[in-house]
Structures are given as structure tokens and as C-alpha cells.
Amino acid sequence: MNGKEAPRAAGQVSTRTRLERGRGALGPALELVHTGRAPTRAVLTSELGVTRATAGAVAAELEALGLIHVEPGSAAGAQGRPSHRLVVADDGPVVLAAQVHSDGYRAALVGLGGRIVATTPGCEIVDADPAQVIGSVVEAGAALLRDSGRRCAGAGLAVPSAVAEPEGNALNPLHLAWPIGAPVREIFEQRVSGAGLDVPAFTGNDVNLAALAEHRHGAGRGSRDLLCVATGHRGVGGALVLDGRLHTGSSGLALEVGHLTVNPEGGRACHCGSRGCLDVETDPLALLTAAGRTPGPEESLLAQARGLLSTEYADRLVRGAAEELIDRLGLGLAGLVNILNPDRIILGGLHRELLTADPERLRAVVADRSLWGRSGSVPILACTLDHNSLVGAAEVAWQPVLDDPLGALST
Amino acid sequence: MNGKEAPRAAGQVSTRTRLERGRGALGPALELVHTGRAPTRAVLTSELGVTRATAGAVAAELEALGLIHVEPGSAAGAQGRPSHRLVVADDGPVVLAAQVHSDGYRAALVGLGGRIVATTPGCEIVDADPAQVIGSVVEAGAALLRDSGRRCAGAGLAVPSAVAEPEGNALNPLHLAWPIGAPVREIFEQRVSGAGLDVPAFTGNDVNLAALAEHRHGAGRGSRDLLCVATGHRGVGGALVLDGRLHTGSSGLALEVGHLTVNPEGGRACHCGSRGCLDVETDPLALLTAAGRTPGPEESLLAQARGLLSTEYADRLVRGAAEELIDRLGLGLAGLVNILNPDRIILGGLHRELLTADPERLRAVVADRSLWGRSGSVPILACTLDHNSLVGAAEVAWQPVLDDPLGALST
DNA sequence: TGAGTTTGTTCAATGTCGGCACAAACTGAG
DNA sequence: CTCAGTTTGTGCCGACATTGAACAAACTCA
């Protein structure tokens, strides 16, 4: 108990320890390469706002970590010495991405840059128990991982439900027949570590994750205020990406846009108790019934609705139904524009098809019902990424590495 | 043209120059003192996450800049050596804050910590020309500044209109009889520099600025996702403060909540062409007419509505009118909660009075129409600051100093 | 082939911040 | 009143990321 031999450990320790620091610009640099905004070392230098010396050191360190490759030379055609190309390492670590939706589940390995390295085929769900389903998809992903022999840096899961923060419970997995409040994050974390993976695991809403993926690798690139609205098989989801970060609100429930009123004169009854909600007015079932079709059991509602739009759009009834949905969707988007003032809107699922069917009509409705200035003429684009929820699940799994490559990979 | 004598200046210069850097933690430290979150040097140390040595150096530098005072000792009652108190300098710089609303204008000098150092009485508007009005309020502020003899660090103006970014035009100054699109920022900047003040000048919407002020010094302290809704004399405004920063959207038009539909069964006609908008259903005029009163010309509508609530709330007709407005307001807030998922809501203007009249009713409506989890039980509080728009105008004027004290004050 | 341009590399200098030791200022018990 | 215990302020040194500048390398164009 001699003070000299046992100096107090709790003296004036700062919150940031040495280990988790690493080189300061390492994270931002990796994010620039990851999102394709730094194709060469020269633009990395200017994007980071540092000297060439620092950028060189940072790039070298990322290469030493096995995350990127620095490829010298390459005839650029421009004047001066060609800059080294920065590319994502094709033999680097991957993350395990998983998605569950009302029609099935899928697992994949995703590298930096949003590249899907390997994927399982879509599997059907045979059990309504969330622990079973999540266990299956994690197992499928772990099998992919074993086959690939690559290092795993994290795991992410996309579910078709709002996920409450900070608990990680699925609050409305209505179309999965899961119990309300199912602890999906806890289940996923358990299954991931149960599969022998000692990596951080994240769970999020599928539309949120899709928006994140589109922001980094798809139609949302470069946007600072990105609004994403999508309908999958049933119901409508929304997401907002602000300054490159997903905005999920204080408890993960932001952008639950399904119950915006878009049919003031009544409309279809919604399970929320109200009528004319975006959820029931613009989803695949709404299109089918508006077109006078009775949905069959052989295909998913989304597939049937898509088929209707692509093959029978000339039909007067189908076209009328589509225009009705477009008007309703436009009303909902205009309401969101007045509140959020995004600089870009991207649409996924059936909404994507509605946009491509008649982009002018949708844009006109949004502009007409938005109030002032340029907010009404916000660009509306279609999602461009395949499996964007899956890639989004990978994005959140990558995030710790993007924030602090040295710290996340040293463990 | 000798390369040796004239070295290229554009070599590998980084974007951050030496002058605008200053000590790294200087800005965060000043913000902590400014918002009252660092009353002593000890908590400054822990809040910044640095060592005592660094915190001491930072505090000393802020004192050398004349922004704060470091007062040694002060019997704290607790164990150990009492920590030096950090207080805002009462002889330091001030900013010029100005506000224009439909009833008049006011100028003030505001120090750090949101302290109003001096203020003009409320002045009536005699001219509908924005340049005249803004000129008058700047002149009044400049006179205050001359009398005080203190240094001016910036200027801010609050206007009752959406302000489009990046131009700074007032898009809906309807109740001021200003032309739509009046270049208020340009006018304000011109008048400020015309008054001999070589300081940055900022212009914003009054509710936005009020929300910022409440976040830093009032009912919004500590909130990470703050929603503010307020009605002044006519119309309803909203604001969102995310992580301490005002969220104005991509072109300054976010949170234009006035045209949310809150009366689905028709309701009053709004100038936007629709019916049942929040704007016309919950403003002072709506209360007066719902209570069967014809507004008189002697007082402002807000004052008359406030008077009605405070003196005649026992009246069946008045109470019924108030409850109708509360239900409509609750419907609007619930819609915003579903989209934004704030962790706190604060209400200003007449909405504040409606909340205090029957808080339970309002909270019940919001909870009933919000969808899941805790998002519906979000705390709803009344604004607490006097002149919060004025203090908010000061906040944006202070912002450059808070971001980089050394750079902002060295010029 | 050489001038001009742009980029990568090396290295010393700089400034910030962490870690440590010690002094200072208070409380509370005997 | 004194002394142990606790918490905070200060001075000093070292680690280290980053700058700045000089120089080499790689390409285009005349």
C-alpha cells in the first residue's frame, strides 16, 4: 500500500485512449475510398485538405491494413505525373450482411465499396419464429464466410420493421408474423457470436439501410439531405440521410411515414384506425385492387404489381390505378418535402416503378403541393442498387471500420 | 522568372491555414461555457475529454481573449480542492440582435450565455418597406452599441418568414406586407456594414432562431432532437434542432409545418388552397373565432387570444374553443412525431398558452395519434425564454466565435 | 529531346496533447 | 489545531501527427 509503488491508475486519464486513436485522417480517408470519392491519391489529398505527405502516409497505412491497394501509375491522359490509383482491396476483409423480408431471407458477404462478394440465393421462410429465421440467415452467412476464407469485420441485419433504439426491438413486423417488440438486435447479436464470429453486430430497418446504401453507392451519392421512400411487399417505409449519416430520430422511429394522410376524402381503412394512409393507398395491394385485380397466391404482391405495370400499362384500368397511386404518393412526398426540405428524393420498391411509369405526373403533384421556392422542384430519382437493403446492412457493419480503421481491425 | 527567387506559392498548401485553426478544443470549450454546461474548470476537463493541463491552457486562452473569466476558489462544499469557476465575461464582446415581427421591431445587445445586455423598447412599424424597417432596427442596435462602448462580434436578424438558402430571401412575409422574396439577408448585411460595423451578419426565421435559443439556454437544454412549434400573431412555424445545430433543410425551408392537414373533415380555408391547415386551425385568430369573438383592432391578435385564455377560460365557449385548438395542434404534433421522432417538443406563442391551459389533453392526443413505442410519450414543454427569437438571432451571430474563437476575433 | 506540369517521397521542424510529478486548496476526523 | 485524504491546478517532457520545403519521378506537349 505504498503510494510510490502503486500510482493511482484513475488519475487524469482522458476518455480517448491511445489505442483507439490511430492516425487522425485514417477514417475519413477510408470513407472517401469506400464511397468512390477518392479514386486517386491526388484527389484524396485535396478532399482531406492535407498535404501530399500526409495523404501518402495515410494511404500507405490503409494499404498496410489490407483495406485498399495503391496502384502506381496509369495513363490518365492529363498533364503531369499520373496519380496513384486507390482501389478497394479485393482480398481484404468482408462483412456479413443479412436481410429478412416478408418473402424470405438472404445472406451475403460484402466488401468495401459496397461490393457483394458472395451471396446465398433467396431462401423461403419456413418458420415464423424470429430466432429461427435470424439463426438460419446467420448460419447461411457464416457458411459463405467459411467458404471464402476471408476475415470478417462486422455483421449487419435488415428487417422490414421499425427498430426501436436503444433496445433494438422490432416494433411493427406485421408482415412477418413476428411478435411485436421482438428483440431482433439481441437475437442477431447472439446468433452472430454463436456462429463463432467475434465481431460487432448491427440491426436496422430495411428502408433505412437501403437509403444509406443508395447514399454511398447509388442514386443518393453526393446528396446532403436525402429522403428515401419505398414500398416493399406491404406498407411504406421512409428514411432520411443527413450529411451522410442515417437520421433515425431519438428512438429509431423517425420517418415512419406510412400513416401520412394522402386521401383526405376517406380512402381505404388502415390498421392504425385512420383512413387514407400512405401505407394502404400506395402499396402493391392498393395497385392491384385499384386495377380491379384479385391478387393470386402464386407470386408476391410486389411481383404481381410490377408485372401489371410492365405488361398492362396500356390498359385503361391499370393506367388509371397507377395514376391514382402516383397522385397519392405525390401528396405524401409533398408533405414530407414541406417538413424535411430534402435536396433529393429516391424511390424504391413499387414506388420506383410508379416513378418510371410517369415521372412527369409525380413531379407535377409534388411541385403543386409543395409551398415555396425550389423545395417543390426537388429531384426525384429511382433507386439504382440491387439489393440495397443488403448493402445497407453491410454499411452499418462497416461503420466502425470507417470511423476508426486501426481500432476496429486491431482487436 | 527565376525558379529559385520566386518559389511557387500554390505548392502543397493545405486548406486550413494557420490563422483559422487556433487551439483545437477552443471552440468546444467556449460553447460549453456559453451554454452553462461547464461551470467549473473540472467539468470542462471531463466534458472535453482532455487532461487538466489542456483544459487549463484552453481556459487561460479564452480568458486572454476576453471572452470568459476564470475565478479562482469558491467554497464548493464538496471534498477536495474547489475548482475554478468559469463565467462569461461581463465586459466582453456582444452581438447585435434584431427582430422584426408583424407588430413591430426590437434591437438588443446580447453577450455570451444568451444574456441580454441592453435592449430597445418595442418599436412600431411605420413603413412596409423591408429596407426601411431593417434599416431602423439596425440603427437602433448601432445606437445601443455606441452607448455601451463594447466590441461587436456579429449581428443577427429574426424575421417572421421562411428564409430561403442560400440567397436569404423572405419567401412568405405575408403578415408584414413585404414583397414575396424580399432579399432580407442582403438588406441586413448592407445596413450592418452601412452602420460602420465590420462584422458577419446573419438572418433567419424567427421560430428557427427561437428554437436554437431555447435549446442552448431554455427549455430545450440537453435535447438532441428538439422539435419546436410556435404561433406568433398569424400562422404557425416549426423548427428542428439536431445535435445542437439548427436543421433548416437543403434550402432553408424545412419545418414549414403550417400546412399540415389537422382537420380532415374540411375546416377553415387556407390561402394555400387547401382546407384545415395547421396554420389557420391553431393560430390566435382561430381561437378568437372559435370562441365566437370578433377580434378588435386595439390589440394584437396574440394578445387578445392570450387574454381570452387567461381571463375567460371558465367560459364554456372559450374552453370549448381552446380544446378544439388543442386537439388540432395535437394532431399536427403527432404527425411530426411520426416523421421526426424528437426527444422533446417545446411550444411557443399561443401554443404555449394552449399547453399550459390543458397539458394532459394535448399529451393524450399526441400519444393517441403517434404510432409506436415511446415516441408518443415525448415530453411537451413550454418555451421558457423571454425574447427567444432575439436571443436566437444572437446565437447565430455568435456562432463563428463559438466555432473558432481565435479566428473570429482576430480580424 | 527538353521544357513544363503534376505527383510521390524524404526529412527536419512545429505545435498539440497526453502522461506524470508535484503543489495547492479544501473537508473531516481526532 | 493538525494531519490524512481527496480533488484540482501547473510545469515539464515526450510522443506524434502534420506541415513545409526540397527533390525526384512520371507524364504531356512542342
From TrEMBL, chains A, B:
Family, as annotated: Belongs to the ROK (NagC/XylR) family.
Q: Which Pfam families match?
A: ROK
Q: What organism is this sequence from?
A: Streptomyces triticagri
Q: Which residues form a coiled coil?
A: none
The protein in question is named ROK family protein
Source domain of life: Bacteria
